[in-house]
Amino acid sequence: xxxxxxxxxxxxxxxxxxxxxxxxxxxxxxxxxxxxxxxxxxxxxxxxxxxxxxxxxxxxxxxxxxxxxxxxxxxxxxxxxxxxxxxxxxxxxxxxxxxxxxxxxxxxxxxxxxxxxxxxxxxxxxxxxxxxxxxxxxxxxxxxxxxxxxxxxxxxxxxxxxxxxxxxxxxxxxxxxxxxxxxxxxxxxxxxxxxxxxxxxxxxxxxxxxxxxxxxxxxxxxxxxxxxxxxxxxxxxxxxxxxx
Length: 244
Description:
The chain is mainly alpha-helical and 244 residues long. It has helices at residues 8-25, 45-48, 63-76, 91-100, 130-142, 157-169, 179-195, 207-212, 221-227, 240-243; strands spanning 32-34, 40-44. It has 2 domains: 58-207, no CATH class; 214-243, no CATH class. It is 43% helix and 3% strand. The chain has a two-stranded antiparallel sheet with strand order 1-2.
């Protein structure tokens, strides 16, 4: 299934705009914003600082990868009566930060080989870091024949389901990529982005916790057992940032 790269120039310009408020907030002097073509914008950065920022610019994800991940997050976590969509929840921001972190770079993983096929009980058994597996996997998806693999970002929900189920079974025929490991990585990242503490970029406004009624990092559960015995449990979600 092809990645959609039709909005690359627009996304780069948007990311440049989103970086403006960060520069202005740090006390940087006003300077023109560079457009994708290298020409300065007529509007200086400090003027753009007043624009609302929906989410930070991506650090790891390339534009086409970002389109794939945004479609994946919204497909696996669609907006309904409880949560907003996966992108609105910040799942893509979580994934971007995770892949660019020490975890994504494989810090703590043994990568010295030799490499043999492992059993499911042995866990991750690849010579690739999570970030390398992600990037190699999306490159292999991009290399699939266009006729058999429409853009995931533009595919229908049914087509996305079929694609993900085939990936989970290892039936896509990706060249040189462990498809089941790639699916497991994508699934893990989406779930963690939904339920991890908001300090890591996902679970925006603790909406993921609200779905399951998780109160957060409260350290008074023993007292709550007594206080709310035989009563509805009333709580205010408490994150790491709330405790700092």
